[in-house]
Design a protein that fits this description.
Blueprint lengths: L11 H38 L7 H24 L1 H25 L2 H24 L9 H18 L4 H10 L6 H21 L4 H5 L15 H9 L2 H22 L1 H7 L4 H16 L2 H11 L1 H20 L6 H28 L6 H29 L2 H29 L1
Length: 420
């Protein structure tokens, strides 16, 4: 049976439960791969370049891959469904991780950069998977269903970075570069996610929801990126959701991307860096159900405002962490992740319900594309800012962006009230 076969009456609630179960398992695996590889890739490119100035290039190339995949996979899923689209994205990331090992061992920047682009496809696929939880969700549970997928990622995101040191030791015991260990772990994790989706996400939730016709004889015309953005921009709430997703991701990535280098420069070892990244990812994922409950119970706008406030507090703490003391780095990076969680959960639900069903997949893909472009640009520039001005300047930039989000939330709320 193909992932798109729908030949009998479908129990939507049963399909939703099965879909969520698959998404929970893939969230653990794929987010674990992304979180474990983040500090390793930053350190690897620093070794390849011999300088930290452009260390953000690894995260930048990864987000290029995420941006490309968001648009390309959204187009593919409009025609084929969620199952083949998600499985393909994770499989591409496996290829990237293999190429990454080859690049590190060969000390080849020319191979490492495209490897990070392909790995970024896996990150983008992991991000897009949350929308599969919304395809069949009841309106009053949409945020919570999205948040459970984000919450499930906690276990992979917190646990697997703790194995960075072990993976590095194993790699060295095999006469390989220690950074290759993280990439080898990613091969296993992304591969497991691809198999789980392909084998078990059946029937396809987007097909059951009516977003894809498996029996169509003509291909669906893909909605271009600019048109999808224009669709979102027509409605104040969809516009706010779009901005929320972009700002939440950009602020989080920009500050997080340079955390390993900032801590390493002040004498912290890989183990301590991994612990801070684990605390950060716990903030991103562990309290996602709380964000989902708040969003469903009190509304998307108050939750988005809470995201802005939390990001401001987080960047205040990191701006004070000039010597990278753990007393500031742990709570600062944790709150940075928590603010991201509030923004992504509420923003994803608001975007999904603020546009017509026929436009949802295209707009979701456009939002993630814009989000990754913004965060990729921020990550790329963050190394330059860190080397020229310091970690506190990165934090000030993030603080300003979070303030823009708060202002936008207030403005769009007033405009929506006038149009209601």
């Amino acid at each position: 049976m193909s992932p798109q076969d729908v030949t009998a009456p479908i129990d939507r609630a049963r399909v939703q439960r099965r879909t969520l179960g698959v998404l929970w398992s893939t969230a653990v695996l794929s987010r674990g791969a992304v979180s474990a590889m983040f500090p390793v890739s930053v350190l690897a490119i620093k070794d390849l370049l011999g300088s930290e100035t452009w260390a953000g290039l690894s995260t930048g190339m990864s987000t290029v891959g995420s941006a490309i995949s968001a648009a390309a996979l959204a187009t593919y899923m409009q025609r084929r469904g969620r199952t083949p689209g998600l499985a393909l994205g994770f499989a591409i990331a496996v290829t990237g991780a293999i190429l990454g090992i080859v690049a590190i061992e060969a000390r080849s920047l020319a191979l490492f950069l495209p490897a990070m682009v392909l790995i970024g496809v896996g990150s983008g696929t992991s991000n897009l998977s949350r929308y599969a939880a919304a395809d069949l969700a009841d309106e009053d549970r949409r945020s919570r269903d999205i948040s459970t997928v984000i919450f499930a990622a906690t276990f992979g995101a917190v646990f697997f970075p703790l194995l960075i040191g072990v993976a590095g030791d194993v790699a060295e015991s095999l006469s390989m570069d220690s950074n290759s260990g993280g990439f080898a772990m990613a091969i296993l994790l992304f591969g497991g996610a691809a198999l789980a989706v392909w084998l078990f996400m059946r029937p396809d939730p987007l097909v059951v929801a009516g977003g894809v016709d498996p029996n169509a004889t003509r291909k669906t015309t893909a909605v271009p990126f600019r048109q999808a953005v224009a669709i979102a921009w027509r409605h104040p709430l969809a516009r706010l959701a779009f901005v929320t997703l972009v700002v939440s991701q950009a602020v989080m990535v920009m500050v997080m991307a340079m955390t390993p280098l900032h801590m390493e420069a002040h004498g912290h070892e890989e183990g301590a860096i991994g612990q801070v990244i684990s605390a950060h990812t716990a903030g991103m994922f562990a309290f996602a159900p709380v964000a989902g409950w708040l969003s469903d119970r009190y509304g998307r706008l108050p939750t988005i405002a809470a995201a802005g406030v939390t990001l401001v507090v987080a960047t205040i703490l990191t701006s004070l962490a000039g010597e990278a003391p753990r007393a500031l780095m742990f709570p600062g990076l944790y709150l940075l992740g928590l603010g991201w969680s509030f923004g992504i959960v509420a923003g994803s639900a608001l975007l999904t319900e603020s546009v017509d069903e026929s436009d949802r997949v295209a707009v979701q893909g456009a939002a993630d594309t814009a989000t990754n472009i913004a965060s990729g640009s921020g990550a790329l520039a963050s190394g330059v800012v860190l080397s020229m001005s310091g970690f506190h300047t990165l934090s000030f930039i993030g603080m300003a962006a979070a303030g823009v989000l708060l202002t936008q939330a207030w403005f769009e709320h007033r405009l929506a009230q006038r149009l209601a």
